[in-house]
Amino acid sequence: MLKLHHLNNSRSTRIIWLLEELGVDYELVSYQRQADKLAPAALKKAHPLGRAPILEDEQDGEHISLAESGAIIEYLIETYDHSGTLRPNPGTKAWRDTIFWLHFAEGSAMPPLVMQLVFSEINNRAPKLMRFMTKAISKQVRQSFIKPNIQNNLVLIEQTLSHNAWFAGDKLTGADIQMSFVIEALAVRADEFDMPHALAWLDKVRARKAYQNALEKGGALKLG
After folding, report:
1. Element at 183 (helix H, strand E)
2. What is the spatial distance between Cα 4 and Cα 218, in angstroms, rounded to a whole number?
3. Pair 105, 70: CB distance under 8 Å
4. Fewest beta carbons within 10 Å, which of 49, 66, 84, 191?
5. Span 19-46, pLDDT tens digits
6. Cα–Cα distance between 45 and 105 in angstroms, integer?
């Protein structure tokens, strides 16, 4: 049976969603973040990286252990999407778009969002005597570097979803699974950015029973 190692309030929620969409049997092993918001050391027993998601499977007597959301999504769709609904035919525009968004999510979209989180934490973790300085530095970096990069990514996302029902066309694909955490993270900053198409897309995602099941089993996302 498939086994997914899941960390609360993390990107591994989207793998639960995919498993629910696929309708396969799986075991969910959940971990809770520590007080410092990092993953517990116990995750290293499942994979040397010690980060979620981690997927385990057995195929033809071989034990498979995979990390990284994009790799896990591709593996699960390739191996378990027997109806072929989540992966467009190779060589088509929808297939190329799916591959692009699978990589864009972690390669371009998440880095500035993670930096936003890191710089918002600087003041909380800096010594009290230095907070006046770290606050000024944090504000400057966020305004001059992080926010423009997020905005640039949003322009492409909005353009795409203005004429596509889903990221790779008119059907849900692995691209949407991968991009879900990105849009959830952006949604908590909706007062800072103009993102009507992304929010409309997120409403459709949240309305799916498989997504609702994922949040019920893996815990709600609290990204604010």
Report:
1. helix 174-187
2. 11
3. yes
4. 191
5. 999 999 999 999 999 988 889 999 999 9
6. 27
